[in-house]
Structures are given as C-alpha cells and as structure tokens.
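Researcher: Structure prediction, please.
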Amino acid sequence: MSINRRVSVAPMMEWTDRHDRFFLRQISKHSVLYTEMVTTGAILFGDKDKHLKFHSAEHPVAVQLGGSNPTDLAECAKICEDYGYDEVNLNVGCPSDRVQNGKIGACLMAEPELVAECISAMRGAVSIPVTVKHRLGIDDLDSYELLSRFVEIVAGGGCTTFIVHARKAILSGLSPKQNREVPPLIYSHVYQLKNDFPQLEFILNGGVKNLAEVDAHLKYVDGVMIGREAYHNPFILADVDKRFYGCNQAAPTRQQVIESMEPYIVSELANGTRLQHIARHILGLFHSQPRGKLWRRYLSENAHKKDAGIEVIHAARDLLLAK
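Model: Predicted structure follows.
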C-alpha cells in the first residue's frame, strides 16, 4: 500500500495502541496511524502478537521501532512487514531516561552515522518504506547546521522520509512530559529542511491544535503529524479525508462513530478484553460538545468494572440523547 502522509497521528506511548487506532480509523479513513514505540527486545524476546497484532481496518498503519542495533532492527523490520504493516519508523526522538540507557530515542541524534547504518540495514530487509522520527537536536547540539548534517547523513543511508518534532530534546533535567512543552517549537527549521532537501519528504510534528494549522504548515512541508490533540479531541480528524485527501464521502457523525465501534467492542469483549482498555480511548469523542462531560464521566466511572459490557457504552450514549 502506498502511503500518503499528508496527515498522520503521532506514535504516543500508552495511547496509540490497537484499540485507539481502530477507533481513530472510524473517524478518518486516510490519516496514517502509528503504533506506540515497540523496542527490538520486546519483539525478539517477548510476545510478538501482544506488541504487533492489529486489525486490518487500521491500514494505512505504521509501526515505530526503538533500538540502535542494525542487525536487530533489520530482523524486527522484517517481522513487522510480515505482520502486514505499511511502514517501519525508527524512533530518534524519545527523550526518556529509560530508553536512553538502552541507546534508544533522541540520544541517537548525536550518532547520525549509526542511524544511517540502522536505516540501511532495515531497508535491506524489507520492501515497505523505512522512515525516521527525530527532534531538531539534543541539549547543546541544537544548531540548524547539525540538524542539516543529521538529515544529510541519514538520507545517505537510504531514508527519504523524515518526521520532525519541531523542538529539541533536553536529555538531562527535563521529564518526557516537559520535553513536549518546554523547549520552544521552531517550525522554521523544518521548513528550511524542506527547502534545503527538496528531494526528501518532511513531515512536521509538534504543537498542532487544529486543521487550520495543518493547512498553514502544508505550504512549506509535505505532511503534518498531529499528536496529543488527536487523542484528547479525536473528532478533529473528521474533516481530514475531505479536506486533505479529496474524499467526497460525508464525514461520520459522533453517533455514527459509536455505532461503528460496537461490533468491534463486542468482539473484543468476547475475546477477553476488558472494556476499560477500549473505553479510555473514546472518552474525548464528545470533547466540547453539549453533555459531553456526562459521556466522559459515565465511562470513567463504569467501564473499569469487572463485568462491564457493551451496555455501558449504550448507557453513556443515552445520556447524550436525554432531553
């Protein structure tokens, strides 16, 4: 499957699991969805199905890998391709101390030659696209010149698509949450990368709150990746297909999204999934809507109960419709 990354939803740890991705796919059929980061160790030595299983409805869907060993990454990329993913993305942006200790994430920006080696090995193992998601820089290594050098070297390893979180990462002194908020966004650096490397694809990530901002960024880059806003206010994606992919089909209503989720929820419950593991992702469906707080509160108070079933979803929906 060819991938049009004009609009995508960012990989977010503990958020963009398979249940969330299925839910988001009911809202937008064309936005590219990304998994949470999965480490090479989790795939090679853990439960592959647990980490990589996904529903066919999720396409186009990309898997994000965390690691720095070219051989391991190549093996994992092939496993992911065999699972049916449309793209493999290498995480060079996570600032967590935990992943730094494993030489994963943003710390790799200091080693562009190693990143290029990893990309080359992965590309040699699969036929699907291999991409990189990275920051503007790390700590004091934050000049545009170093960023440009990173892109040039990694492109030499065969990478043609760069997803750029438009902040640097501060690897000591800031938590991962602070690293999403404290370092300033410098969109102009991402725009400049596209200007300097017009043959490469650049996807801008960081701080995008609405589709008007997506429109504005698309004047300078090839695509925009939406992060936390797509989780807390998922219906932001409802107009994406028409606005950015030329789809003539009417956007779904929120009520239609609930209806389209029902067969999935019933099937997952029958296979042993607890309702809370799905319901937590749909809390924001009625964000800023009349009676939306009732929906959120009812699900929060009831979906975690041991025997919670589809009737909880029905009851929450009925609160929205009550006169």
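Model: The domain at 254-321 is CATH 1.20.120.1460 (Four Helix Bundle (Hemerythrin (Met), subunit A)).
Researcher: Thanks, that helps.
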